[in-house]
């Protein structure tokens, strides 16, 4: 017999949990996150109430999960769907258990950060403790990793120096080509990093976009932060949000000709600053994904749904448009360092990836291939304009500008 369905109750948590488990995951998660963070709903929303009701709902799925019985067997609906729902719920639970107060009500990370900085500046704290790492110091690949890297930014003149942005672990700097790393983002109020930009005229000036690129409850963003001392201290720019604002940052890019000009793409539109982050203006209201500057600094491309829009005035206005007439999203684009007239873009549906290439600075685009894959980033070779790489957990290589692909790595190596 399958699990017993819960009777309707007045709890907003339960209502949303039922929606989550009925297949409307994306909409429910967004609604659920708003419910968790809106001040006027905190009194109704307590994580302990949700956990009690979820334990009853997942009574059978919990047993199956911990028995590791994942074969479909005689009850495919029970053994497959409900176990997946249970795993999704446990991830949700683990996240929120670390983001609620002692009564179980949600707390903004900006409030948590203020409490932390107030504690550091107070006289009531005890002596500084000595900490010893008890985790691994080397990664062996596969699931035995040590975190996920979202972004790599390079020093403008020193090839041994780079900054890495972790999906949930802040910013790390290496000055010896990756042999050792030092955290430089501990002064940030939020450790989820989506983009890093380095000022080529002064590499002590960095910009960081904090948040994930998706639309799940754990991927919300707090905006753009800036450091002028190499990461010792970080301050908020004029583009900062609370998590209840439901901001989702996709990409932050800096003009190659003017480091005071930056553009950030978000679910709520595209924003631009021309004064190093002090003030920002929304220059396009549509949901946007990736953004790339042409080396001339005036030409900018944005992936917007199944379209690519183009600006020829540094991102102030957007006019020309290429529409792939597909159901996917242009989430990743690249420009060739060998010949900047060549661009590549991936339109992703979740099941298929279509690769488009332009050889005339974005005036026209050609579909080169459509393959079954979940997506991932794309990039040109630094030596050959015909060579492209794309992938996520697996890496593929093309030597004919995306017409065909060869897998060159597996997820575990």
Short description:
By secondary structure, the protein is α+β, with helices and mostly antiparallel strands.
Please name the defining characteristics of this protein.
alpha+beta, four-stranded antiparallel beta sheet, 6 helices, 19% helix, disordered N terminus
Give me the secondary-structure topology:
Blueprint (H helix, E strand, L loop, with lengths): L11 H10 L3 H13 L9 H11 L1 H8 L9 H22 L11 H13 L27 E6 L7 E5 L4 E4 L7 E2 L9 E6 L7 E5 L12 E5 L7 E6 L8 E6 L7 E5 L2 E5 L7 E4 L6 E3 L6 E5 L2 E5 L9 E3 L5 E7 L7 E6 L3 E7 L7 E7 L4 E4 L7 E4 L3 E4 L7 E2 L6
Helix pairs in contact: 1-2, 3-4, 4-5
- Tell me the number of helical segments per DSSP (H or I, 4 or more residues long): 6
- Which structural category do the helix and sheet elements fall into? alpha+beta
Q: Residue share in helices?
A: 10-25%
Q: What's the total number of strands?
A: 24
Largest sheet: 4 strands, antiparallel
Return Rg in Å: 23 Å
Strand content: 25-35%
Low-confidence stretches: 1-43, 66-79
Care to describe what's here?
By secondary structure, this protein is of the alpha+beta class. 19% of the residues lie in helices and 28% in strands. It contains six helices and 24 strands. A four-stranded antiparallel β-sheet has the order 1-2-3-4, with no helix packed on it. Strands 5-6-7-8 form a four-stranded antiparallel β-sheet, with no helix packed on it. A four-stranded antiparallel β-sheet has the order 9-10-11-12, with no helix packed on it. Strand 14 (300-304) and strand 15 (307-311) form a beta hairpin. Helix 1 (12-21) packs antiparallel against helix 2 (25-37), helix 3 crosses helix 4 and helix 4 (59-66) crosses helix 5 (76-97). It is globular.
């Amino acid at each position: 017999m399958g699990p017993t369905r819960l009777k309707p109750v007045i709890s907003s948590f339960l209502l949303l949990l039922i929606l989550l488990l009925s297949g409307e995951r994306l909409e429910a998660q967004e609604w659920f996150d708003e419910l968790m963070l809106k001040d006027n709903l905190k009194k109704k929303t307590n994580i302990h109430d949700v956990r009690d009701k979820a334990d009853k709902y997942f009574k059978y799925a919990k047993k199956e999960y911990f028995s590791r019985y994942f074969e479909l067997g005689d009850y495919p609906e029970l053994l497959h769907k409900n176990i997946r729902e249970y795993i999704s719920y446990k991830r949700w639970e683990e996240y929120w258990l670390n983001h609620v107060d002692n009564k179980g009500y949600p707390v903004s990370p900006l409030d948590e950060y203020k409490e932390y900085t107030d504690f550091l500046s107070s006289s009531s704290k005890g002596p500084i403790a000595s900490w010893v790492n008890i985790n691994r110091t080397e990664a062996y690949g596969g699931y035995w990793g040590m975190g996920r890297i979202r972004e790599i930014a390079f020093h403008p003149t020193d090839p041994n120096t780079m900054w890495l942005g972790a999906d949930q672990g802040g910013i790390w700097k290496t000055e010896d080509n990756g042999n050792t790393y030092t955290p430089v983002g501990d002064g940030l109020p939020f450790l989820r990093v989506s983009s890093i930009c380095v000022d080529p005229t002064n590499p002590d000036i960095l910009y960081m976009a904090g948040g994930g690129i998706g639309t799940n409850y754990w991927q919300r963003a707090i905006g753009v932060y800036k450091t002028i001392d190499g990461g010792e201290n970080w301050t908020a720019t004029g583009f900062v949000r609370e998590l209840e604002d439901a901001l989702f940052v996709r990409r932050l890019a800096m003009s190659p000709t003017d480091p005071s000009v930056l553009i950030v793409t978000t679910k709520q539109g595209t924003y631009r600053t021309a004064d190093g982050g002090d003030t920002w203006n929304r220059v396009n209201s549509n949901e946007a994904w990736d953004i790339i500057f042409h080396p001339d600094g005036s030409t900018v491309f944005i992936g917007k749904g199944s379209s690519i829009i183009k600006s020829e005035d540094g991102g102030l206005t957007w006019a020309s448009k290429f529409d792939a007439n597909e159901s996917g999203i242009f989430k990743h684009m690249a420009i060739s360092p060998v010949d900047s007239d060549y661009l590549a873009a991936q339109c992703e549906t979740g099941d298929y990836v279509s690769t488009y290439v332009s050889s005339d600075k974005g005036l026209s685009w050609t579909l080169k291939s459509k393959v079954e894959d979940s997506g991932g980033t794309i990039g040109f070779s630094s030596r050959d304009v015909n060579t492209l790489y794309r992938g996520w957990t697996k890496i593929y290589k093309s030597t004919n500008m995306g017409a065909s692909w060869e897998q060159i790595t597996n997820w575990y190596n």
